[in-house]
Amino acid sequence: MAVVEIYDTTLRDGSQGEGISFSAEDKVKIALKLDKMGFHYVEGGWPGSNPKDMAFFQRIKNHRLSHARIAAFGSTRKPGIPVQEDGNIQCILAAGVSVAAIFGKSWDLHVTRALGTTLEENLAMIEESVGYLKSRGLMVIYDAEHFFDGFKANAEYALATLRAAVRGGADRLVLCDTNGGSLPEEITAIVGRVKEEIPVVLGIHCHNDGELAVANTLAAVRAGVTHVQGTINGYGERCGNANLCSVIPNLTLKYGHETIPRSSLARLTDLSRYVSELANLHPNPHQPFVGASAFAHKGGVHVSAILKDTRTYEHIDPALVGNQRRVLVSELSGLSNLFYKLKELNFNLDASREETRRFLEEIKELEHQGYMFEGAEGSFELLLRRAYDNYREPFKLESLRVIIELKENSPVYSEAIIKLTVGGQVVHTAAEGNGPVNALDNALRKALEVFYPDIRRMQLTDYKVRVLDEKDGTAAVVRVLIETGDGERSWGTVGVSTNIIEASWQALVDSIAYGLLKNNGR
Amino acid sequence: MAVVEIYDTTLRDGSQGEGISFSAEDKVKIALKLDKMGFHYVEGGWPGSNPKDMAFFQRIKNHRLSHARIAAFGSTRKPGIPVQEDGNIQCILAAGVSVAAIFGKSWDLHVTRALGTTLEENLAMIEESVGYLKSRGLMVIYDAEHFFDGFKANAEYALATLRAAVRGGADRLVLCDTNGGSLPEEITAIVGRVKEEIPVVLGIHCHNDGELAVANTLAAVRAGVTHVQGTINGYGERCGNANLCSVIPNLTLKYGHETIPRSSLARLTDLSRYVSELANLHPNPHQPFVGASAFAHKGGVHVSAILKDTRTYEHIDPALVGNQRRVLVSELSGLSNLFYKLKELNFNLDASREETRRFLEEIKELEHQGYMFEGAEGSFELLLRRAYDNYREPFKLESLRVIIELKENSPVYSEAIIKLTVGGQVVHTAAEGNGPVNALDNALRKALEVFYPDIRRMQLTDYKVRVLDEKDGTAAVVRVLIETGDGERSWGTVGVSTNIIEASWQALVDSIAYGLLKNNGR
Questions:
Q1: ipTM of the complex, rounded to two decimals
Q2: Using one digit for the tens of pLDDT, what is the confidence trace for B374-387?
Q3: pTM for the whole thing?
Q4: Can you tell me the mean pLDDT for B467-483?
Q5: Where is the Pyruvate carboxyltransferase domain (chains A, B) (predicted)?
Q6: Residue A333's pLDDT is what?
């Protein structure tokens, strides 16, 4: 039973995964979520490597965090130059964070072959880089890249690199299985050796190339490591990093260690889906602990046993990680989530009332069609107010038409024509746009601005499309998620249709309706 | 270094995974493939549970297998009846196989709560069921369900169930972590205890609920087990079974055990994709060893190191498991990624030539606009061939128009009108669709099918949209990624525009052009 620090690198190592690309704004959202859940460190990016990461560090400064410390990533200085002249190290300082994570070489092969320098110079690079950042007042986490492979090739040299970091004043030494090919018993033995030799807090950073990243991380903790690095959903280069959505519940529930608070653990499933939504990746239904199928039971033997005693086919209570038992014959999922959300909005519904039952069925039916309200609080609240609150729509659609034309050697042309009823008046107007959704957006704003001047402050900030049943190709149902902001807050809305324009329209209408609702409420 | 028997249960436990359903013919195909690759056992199904499984056992008899033995699955007899009157046991005999795999209860909780019988009767059920099948000449593999949980709750009783199976004459005793929640060190300790007490060959059967199925399987082998059960790609109920695509290469390449022949190991990636194709599931690109991203390098630092020595960022040679190194062309990467990619496509470009410089600048400019070639190898290769290969486009767009109409109380209507030049002829046609992209897709296929009948086999399998500069709202640049398959291979293409229809059109055009290019190349 120890306190194990959780260090999330979804925003840096995770974003090196194929097909993953977060915007600076996505990164800020994820960092805030991780902070709220009590993660100890959030590695925001590599400020020296691209302008997007630097933008993240600028933006995150505008937020007050309550738990997490933001870390900036980088490497030890280049061979043969003074540390204060190294651009990459300067970028870490420019990021303006209190924690630096820098990686250096542990494996002699890498020093001589990849870096093309001497073993001695590498030790100096480590000691001076750590020392310089320490002298500038930062906490320094030293990532010993390829530590296990390096140790197997030349244990003495690998240990010497750690000692160099200790001399520089490193606060944490993180042993990395960079190529992800180590076996648990190797991790156990090598961490044990390091622990005997080195007096600094040790960390672990595993990759999943042998499908052993979680096991290797747990083995390291058993051997005395108290700082764990990984990513949400195991995103990361090649086969990914150690999956924190499995590492955290294993450490907390199976080993009894203290990681993130229990109340946050109960929102782990939400977190996993939130991050996959922002990454625009399908959640893996079979993902341990947090997957939609992780506690799904098929009919027959399993179900009847589960009804007698859930321990018969469940290794933990799914509620501990915010997941749910699903019995595949009945679609009872989602109710407790739903009630949780209703309470959040101060709707204390009586579950026994007829209208509540009807509302629940509507939600179930919409989710069955492909709506997802997790990333669309705006649409969800509108649905609720439409059902209960005598909510009046700010306008009503009569008809819309969108025309897109593309000709050789001329720019593409998009036009939207809409006819609405607003406050008893019919408005019939048209607008062009950069693309059909923009044309629609422009036409809608043009029609409504006279009636609702607040609309001018609302801006669409993200637009995501997800194909739901891929087997149907271009005829598949698509879900559109729109994020809108007014400079103060932001909200998500959703639309679903086989027609991307119709789905976009639904989300667009909700986006404006919700914005107006909140403005009136102030 | 031992011989470890590989027992595949993809067709039985794997098909209990949510969303997986094999036809009897699919099952035969997979069994033949596994046989050819030297798997020792193939569990074909549970003949007592459904007619499809019985059909498999009938059909597989028409084939001569060269390595694998086919096993039929079932349970011990029901409480309180003579074994020869148990319908489930009779079905195993009716399957006409030489190997029976029967599961029985090890956990006292299950015996009394789920089964509702006495601990003594359960022992009799095990011994008599095993004994009866042995007396009918079958090899009997006894699956001790919930063995680890049972052992933790009541070690003496769990061992007594194994002894009952031994008295019945069981040839293998397979210890099952049915709920998938055990930890590697528990597996090590409990297998060690069993090994001391029981003189029969031991097996292991793990589930992945703690993301530890592969580690637990390896731990069991280290503790003396020589029979390993699992599924291809880790398919299976809830979070799946131990993934044989990771277990086999770990046992063979890391531990030096004998499993399937080395020549078969080099076809493991093919096997994984073949099974996912028949299961109609997307292959997981990040799957260890066999995933498309498992040896994909994105970071510029990684790529330049890989070019010097592949060991720097690869834990094994990808060719050993039939996989390939891939270098992703992306914003994070430098020129070294691009040169690697060109070499892969047999374009040996001279970096000093003017056209190469121009090509590189074009790529850089396109990436700056928002193109992403790491998920769009089809578009990348077309770009290259357009620049160097005197590539001729299969058709040329004259004009296109898309109209979408939405009226109160009537379904949305989408129509695409296109005018193309194909082989000197002008084709002017139109089509409706479920949404504008589907309408475009339909119109394009309609126009081209006469000229290129191969198009009929191409199917769009995924469609992703990403807004690139979110601050511009609906006027932002969007990137469309399309994945297309023809049943044998699949390829990605990309389009970028402020207009989602135009971006989709670009990706659609490349998708068909690339498919035709590859078909002509055969």
A1: 0.77
A2: 678 899 889 888 87
A3: 0.76
A4: 71
A5: 4-266
A6: 37
Q: Out of A288, A406, A442, name the one closest to residue B505 (CB).
A: A406
Q: Which residues pair with B146 in a beta bridge?
A: none
- Contact: A238, B297; criterion CB under 8 Å: yes
Q: What is the DSSP letter of B63?
A: S
Cα distances (Å, whole numbers) of residue A211 to A6, A61, A166, B243, B319 = 21, 37, 32, 9, 18
Name the more confident of A306 and A486. Answer: A486
Q: What domains, with CATH codes, occur in chain B? A: 5-260 (3.20.20.70), 396-520 (3.30.160.270)
Q: Mean pLDDT across the stretch B441-451?
A: 93
Distance CA B165, CA B29 (A): 33
What's the residue count for chain B? 522
Q: What is the mean pLDDT of residues B234-251?
A: 97
B136-187: pLDDT as tens digits: 999 999 999 999 999 999 999 999 999 999 999 999 999 999 999 999 999 9
Which residue in B has a C-alpha nearest to residue A114's C-alpha? B305
Q: What's the whole-number mean pLDDT along residues A143-169?
A: 98
**Alpha-carbon distance A211 to A222, whole Å?**
19
Contact B406 A505 (CB under 8 A): yes
Give the mutation candidate from B76, B111, B154, B209 for the A interface (greatest A CB count, under 10 A): B209
Q: Which residue in A512, A478, A482, A502 sits closest to A494, CA to CA?
A: A482
Strands B425-432 and B410-422: antiparallel
Of A133, A219, A214, A231, the residue nearest A184 (C-alpha) = A219
| Chains A, B: CB pairs < 8 Å | 357
Burial letters B71-82, b for 16+ CB under 10 A, else e:
bbbbbbbbeeee
A388: closest CA of chain B, how far (Å): 24
**Residue A375: predicted pLDDT:** 65
**Interchain pair B473, A467: CB under 8 A:** no
Does the beta-carbon distance from A313 to B286 stay under 8 Å? no
pLDDT 10s digits, A233-259: 999 999 999 999 999 999 999 999 999
Contact check, Cβ <8 Å, B466/A280: yes
Nearest partner of B467 among B414, B505, B508, B503, judged by Cα: B503
CB contacts, 8 Å: A404 with chain B: 400-403, 436, 499, 501-502
